[in-house]
Specification:
This protein has 14 helices and 19 strands. With 473 residues, it is α+β, with helices and mostly antiparallel strands. The strands form 4 sheets. Strands 7, 8, 9, 11, 15, 16, 18 and 19 form an 8-stranded mixed sheet that branches. The longest helix is centred in the middle third of the chain and has 35 residues, at 273-307. The two termini are 32 Å apart. 60% of the residues are buried.
């Protein structure tokens, strides 16, 4: 994207002034270098989002933004239902409630290193990964509906984890308002054997070391110290979420709001029957993702117990980055409830926010930023400024710099695995092609993205994590 096509408001804030049917400006938070690396399609899609009815303040893009389906990935937009606001399936994405969960292990590098290869094999054996992967859990119709209503709370009630886990999950591990009856039988069928599985693409299970502490006070509050070993899980609602996205996008194209500048922006008024049905299905998929990450946590604990019994895996936090949530914000007037779409963007509530666990209110919400299997990841903390800047939102990862097809032309999976092993990173995968598609070089510089988020005051850096073991689909 040409930076000169934007109005620069500050070093890390760039505006698309309203023109044509735009109701609000588009705002991108990024460095000039990150802007220059963005596809022009990001600008076009952000301007299109700004035309939707009921949108408040602006259509936002985070530092890791790249073009997606309808909304740019890294896009944020909030809608007021009383001003004709809409819900857009494309504004949530196909992998509904995809997110990251990070766990403490109570281990240090000297305790891990002698068992590293054995642990990699145990994790790979314990957590199914890959396209169409299935697990040992099979849900009948009754259990499926109970899972879709209960989320991680359902998983804990079935013995997958502990009640205290729920204290460190958004919404205590359960999205209210889920409507399993609004989820198609095809979606439920696809999910019946996929609980406790990673899936493919950019999803991963990673053992990491805390490499750098940026904010010692916040790190202490998060329970992080130099050289701590942690585990991060990145996955979502699997086949169920994808099918819900497919089902409702098709319906919204036919029955939804008109006119729209791009059919991929298909949407429905929040107060409409279609809008309410999608919200109910989306919340059911959110619960599916929360339950899925909870089950994977249980499987990971089992693998560690088998190899390193001294490990104690406790949750730091679990946050989703493909969602639409009702949150109280000041839009263009007094504070009120808005429907905040975050597609490839992470909620970043600042210190004192009432929706945070008491233990985190003094420092703000952990913002978990995933890297790639060969590069660092970051833990940030939400800021109070982010509320006014972007409805308490921050980036979610590095963001792709090239397509998967382009990546496979440039890299070979086996060679990448060998290169990463030489760097001390063990990769376990069922697909060499999948590794090539997710090559570190196919992504933006996650350190530049995290720094831009901090410089823009969306969130502040707390710790940098480097990979040691990565299980990929």
């Amino acid at each position: 994207m040409n930076p000169q096509s934007l109005l620069r408001r500050s070093e890390f804030e760039w505006w698309i002034e309203p023109t044509g049917q735009m109701r609000v400006p588009g705002i991108i938070y990024a460095s000039e270098q990150l802007i220059a690396g963005m596809d022009e399609k990001v600008r076009e899609q952000l301007a299109n989002v700004a035309t939707l009815p009921g949108i408040q303040r602006a259509a936002y893009a985070m530092p890791d933004a790249h073009w997606g389906y309808g909304f740019p990935i890294g896009g944020v937009a909030a809608f007021d239902p009383d001003e004709g606001g809409v819900i857009s399936a494309g504004g949530v994405g196909f992998d509904i409630s995809c997110g990251v969960r990070t766990l403490h292990t109570a281990l240090r590098p000297d305790a891990l290193e002698p068992h590293k290869a054995e642990l990699a094999e145990a994790l790979f054996r314990s957590v199914p990964a890959g396209v169409g992967s299935s697990g040992a859990i099979i849900l009948d119709e009754r259990e499926m509906d109970e899972m879709l209503c209960g989320g991680a709370q359902w998983a804990v009630s079935r013995g997958y984890g502990y009640p205290q886990d729920l204290e460190r999950i958004e919404e205590s591990g359960r999205a209210s308002g889920a409507k399993p009856e609004c989820v198609s039988q095809q979606a439920k069928k696809r999910q019946a054997r996929q609980m406790g599985t990673l899936g493919s693409g950019n999803h991963y299970l990673e053992v990491q070391r805390v490499d750098t502490i940026f904010d010692s006070a916040a790190a202490t509050e998060f329970g992080l110290h130099q050289d701590d070993i942690v585990v991060s899980i990145h996955c979502g609602s699997r086949g169920l979420g994808h099918q819900i996205g497919t089902d409702y996008l098709k319906t919204m194209v036919i029955q939804g709001y008109r006119p729209i500048p791009d059919r991929e922006l298909a949407c429905a008024p929040i107060h409409s029957e279609l809008g309410q049905h999608y919200l109910g299905a989306m919340r059911a998929a959110t619960n599916c993702a929360l339950a899925n990450r909870q089950i994977i946590t249980h499987l990971v604990r089992g693998a560690f117990a088998e190899v390193i019994p001294a490990a104690r895996l406790t949750l730091l936090y679990d946050v989703s980055h493909n969602t639409c949530k009702i949150e109280r914000h000041s839009g263009d007037a007094a504070p009120r409830e808005l429907f905040v779409h975050r597609k490839g963007a992470t909620r970043s509530f600042g210190p004192g926010h009432p929706e945070l666990p008491l233990a985190l209110q003094g420092v703000g919400q952990p913002v978990l930023i995933g890297g790639t299997m060969g590069t660092e990841s970051y833990i940030l903390a939400g800021t109070k400024e982010s509320e006014q800047l972007a409805f308490s939102s921050a980036c979610h990862g590095a963001g792709r710099a090239m397509s998967r097809t382009q990546a496979t032309k440039q890299w070979r999976g086996r060679a990448l695995i060998d290169q990463l092993r030489e760097q001390g990173i063990l990769i376990r995968t069922r697909s060499y092609r999948g590794v090539a598609e997710e090559a570190p070089g196919a992504y933006k510089d996650v350190s530049a993205v995290a720094e831009a988020a901090e410089q823009a005051h969306l969130a502040r850096r707390v710790a940098r994590l480097v990979p040691l073991i990565c299980v990929k689909g």
